[in-house]
Specification:
mainly alpha; DNA polymerase, domain 1; hpI Integrase, Chain A; 14 helices
Amino acid sequence: MRFEDFIADRYLPYAEANKRSFHDDVLTCRMLIEFFGRRTLRNIKADLIEEFKQRRLATPVRTHGKKPDPDKKPRPRSPATVNRELSILSKIFSLAFEAELVDENPCRRVKKLRITNQCGHCLTTEEEEALFMALVENKWVGQIVLFALHMGMRRSEIFNLRWFDVDATREIVHVRQSKNGKARVVPMNETIKSLLQSSPKTSEYVFPSPKTGGRVIDVGRQFERAVKESGLGNFRFHDLRHTAATRMAANTDPFTLAYIFGWSDIRMAMRYTHATNVTMKQAVRSLDGLSARLGNVLATKTKTAGAVLP
């Protein structure tokens, strides 16, 4: 069976029925078909997949629908993005193996890219002000950005949010469609309560598309334009989530942070909490009082011992 036929006949129906990231998978599958072409499943080997991995990593992120800006340095593709694409490719071959269309999953012979332990770009107060100034003429995107900065939710979670998910009485938001498949609730602060109270309910979605009134697909063009005007360089929409996590980490423990952000691995939260200088200084300074008391006791004992010496 050809690779593209298997995706259309088997993988995409599977993804639509089982994966919350189906819309993202469709885009990834289009790219996979562009690379692997009309090859059969059995003709795709580990060496070709390794070539795909290296080529994707070396290819800058394309700006869809716009002409390249010669004055702007292309944004490199992150290893995490390539690894996600490899994961989808691996699942395709796993399904093909179960269907006895291939003898093995060739992706298992290809190593994932190493990901550096970086938390992304965290906005300063001045950068945040500049970003919102650039969004003054685009209130809709500005509201989405504000929501992301205060709730720390993923882009897909915000786009999928319905008014049914907002519990104004308990002041919480239900995240029913999460990346790891686990539902959670996120408390609202006063900023978000005010934002939602002033938002018209013209659709079942909290932030509907201005054109269709349905689920919004992307805010890429408008957001990238605001980022450019505010001079934030390669700041990404996902960095809004990084900013929220970094700010919250200064005032909470990693377990609470992990629940709010929907991380199944506590180490994700530790990346933010252990990097917060304020909390580290507070932890170390908390020992000052104990050390001072022990120092006084030691000084008293030394003085007493010296008094009895001949």
